[in-house]
Amino acid sequence: MTVQQLSLLALLLTLTAQTARAEEHLLLDEIIVRADRESPKEESLSVREVRESPARDMGEALKQVEGINTVHKGAIANDVVLRGFQKDNINVLVDGVRLHGACPSRMDPPAFHYDFAEIEQVKIIKGPYDLTNPGSLGGLIDAQTKRPGKGFGGELSLGYGDWHSTNASATASYATDSYDGLLGYAYKYSDVPKSGNGKLLTEIYPSTSPNRYKTAAVDSKAYEINTGWGKLGFNPTSNSRTEVSYTYQDADHVLYPYLKMDADYDKTHRMNWSYRVQNISALLQDLKLQVYWDRVKHLMDDRDRFSSSTSPRFYSMQTDASTQTYGAKLQAALQIGPGTLKSGLDYYNRNWDATNRRAMYFSYRDLAMIPDATIENVGLFSEYTLPLGSQLSLTGGVRGDLTHAEAGRTNTMVTAGSSKEFSSISANLQLNYTPFKELTVFTGLGRGTRTPDQQELYLDVPGTPAWRGNQNLKATVNHQVDLGAKYATNRFYINASIFYSDLQDYVNFYQASPTLKSYQNIHASIWGAELGSQISLPADLFLRGGLSYTEGRNISGNRPLSEIPPLRGTISIRYDNGRFFAELLETLSREQDRIDSSLNEQKTAGWVTTDLKAGYQYKGFSVTGGINNLLDTQYYSHLSYLRDPFVSGVGYRVPENGRNVYLSMAYKF
Ligand SMILES: [Cu+2]
């Protein structure tokens, strides 16, 4: 289908919406949340939507949101892409905590490091409209963890599906007016999934490839993850609260057919403390202090691949990586004049170190792949929201950042102690217009920035070709314009948005010479549009449709930007009487033929998949079952393969999962 056909279809669905009898309904509540509270530039994903899906991690669960795609490297650890912006071009946080992965190949993206069972809701801001965090150049995805309700509470959940995919969790909590506590535990396991052609994801390499899996590893466990967490809250007065939380996650033996190595482990610690006082005076509405720390240790090697079989050690290549991030933020909301001023100061420090050892490099000599490098950032932001009558609201804000990058070890790229400074300004102006209750129009002009990370600056991997960072990289600056409109009643909503982003000094991976692959600043642009709608029909029927499109251009190179997802549409029909539901979902993706030929990027064919699910809910008990990819279609996401010059083999793409059946049960009290 073309863009026009799909938009027509979505529009038709909206026009056929009729009013139906009102009934207390979880789904209706969600429509109302989307209608009343969210600006057209915002999206959210509720815990219900996550629970009902067979998604294995938050990245995969977020795929159902318009404008979100993922990079699929294996059975888990999907990396989130928002409107074509990936990696450090977006912020992926949890409770505002900055959390980075340790792997230089992004085996462990930020969203991989928290479990669903910790999360209540995920908030998404599309575009450079978050000034409260440094680096929200393309947008913000912030997961919010659960807070216990009054008295004793708990939730038990067990999911099981094809390939022994297991997802079990338990939480228990207790709360009074003055204090509360919560404990949780989650376990995830799966064998290697099969794609639509009946082959395992580990069977994508031909029998001549050194990257193919050893016979014993082909059909082994794809991952095993244990996560435990706790949270303590104390309310010293009725208007103040302090909270401390800690999570430990241990991921074991995670396979990544997309890459040349697999993870032996990822061990993650995450800690967050906050203190908040509200309604202090007529002037000071809200004051919050937050301090956090997290650390990830990651070890990957090729022990399960043929490349290691003739090595003197059990591996021919290995990377031992760790990262640590800590930070603090003080923010206040003040009632000044007719409007509200939100202002704050924040700091973070991220250290990243990776040591690579290879048989072919001086017989396993230690190589400072990422040389114990630290990035420190201090920022100041202010945002003022001014109501202009009952129909208009104007928001303007500015943020300034000073960033210091320094290497702690020496490699071919950099000497220990060498450093670099960046300073950047972000700003935006947003106008929300509500001519009548049902319609909100949003328009925004934004400037967002992000500084290059340690890998882009200092990476050193000798070889032919070598893979190296570029110390002369500048910070990327995004100038973006957004237009959005939402029409919503308590029976349906439709949300449409369009954006254009001009990217100065976009960090692009490229083949610098026949012997060197590196990063360069280019001039690029991305534009796109999304359409989302949900309609309540008579007879407890609900229709939902969505469309997402993104187009990227490498203006400097006069060619398409690489790794941009194609047009995607979803349409679902659901029967839901509040107790029982059944849903049919069609997902359609167009062919992607806008490719960067200099990276030998390949076209990806279009596809259609069908998912079915049904569930029953009674009081605190719920059961959901489903069949994903009902027709066992063999298909590929355009993002799920490695491009030149880092390709793990021409045309070796990681297919999406074939038909799989799942069942999950939950009990909440
Ligand atoms: Cu890794």
Automatic annotation (TrEMBL):
One GO CC term, this protein: cell outer membrane
Keyword Transport: yes
GO BP terms in the entry: siderophore transmembrane transport
Cellular localization per UniProt: Cell outer membrane
Domain (TonB-dependent receptor plug) ranges: 44-139
Topological category with respect to the lipid bilayer: Multi-pass membrane protein
Annotated signal sequence range: 1-22
One Pfam family hit: Plug
Domain TonB-dependent receptor-like beta-barrel, first and last residues per copy: 230-630
GO molecular function: siderophore uptake transmembrane transporter activity
Keywords, ordered alphabetically: Cell outer membrane, Membrane, Signal, TonB box, Transmembrane, Transmembrane beta strand, Transport
Domain of life: Bacteria
Family: Belongs to the TonB-dependent receptor family.
Name of the protein described by the UniProt record: Iron complex outermembrane recepter protein
Organism: Trichlorobacter thiogenes
